[in-house]
Amino acid sequence: REEIRAVENGTLDKDDNPLKNAPHTAAEIVGEWTHPYSREQAVYPLETLMDAKYWPPVGRVDNVFGDRNLICACPSIADYQDA
User: Fold this and answer.
1) Alpha helices in the chain (DSSP H)
2) pLDDT single digits (tens) 12-69
3) DSSP summary character for residue 74
4) Does pTM surpass 0.70?
5) Contact by Cβ (8 Å): 3, 18
6) 8-12 contacts at long range (C-beta below 8 A, 24 or more positions apart)
7) 54 contacts 24 by C-beta, under 8 angstroms
8) What single string gives the DSSP state of each residue in 11-67?
């Protein structure tokens, strides 16, 4: 909520902020940093993440398409019936 509030009050850029660019991958963090917010703010938005950080292998694919549209890559139910 604090990140949203920072965008609302103009502390964070509305187009280039930790929320819009999440998740930040390990590869992105060690490369050249071109964002107006700090690496620490991107990687550890909460202090509790310091001990238990999950590093996503990729950033967002197709922006938010995958977030809004569930795509199942599982075999069909029919494939399990003969097993």
Assistant:
1) 2-8, 18-21, 26-30, 39-43, 65-68, 77-81
2) 999 999 999 888 888 888 888 999 999 989 888 888 888 888 777 777 666 677 677 7
3) S
4) no
5) yes
6) 12/36, 12/37
7) no
8) SS-SSSSHHHHPSPPHHHHHS---SSS-HHHHH-SSGGGGTS----SS--STTTHHH
